[in-house]
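Following the same procedure, backbone shapes were mapped to integers, yielding the entry below.
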Amino acid sequence: MVTDILPENILFEVEDVFGKKVRTTKSYWQKIKTDKHRELKFEFQDVIRTLQNPDEVNLSVRDKYIRLFFKNFERETLIVLVKYLNDHGFVVTVYQTTKAKRKGEKLWPK
């Protein structure tokens, strides 16, 4: 469920599949879409769906505080990287691929 009252710059804050709050700001979402991954076809609503109902979630092999959320959409997989600090998560980046490499410990589904 999306929180109703948020600071002005927060684009969304939702509970992920683990019950932890994850958020991103409007400005950071724009940075992802315009600087980091201009090829990204997906919108923030797809990111929310991926966080709330992923096909798989893996622990990062490089950073124990990062989880990778995978969701298949037709021919592409959306991958959302979330970093958790003090039990709250924030979106690090979002990208799409046709060849998702799932490394790291599988956390969801068990």
Summary: The chain has one domain: 10-98.
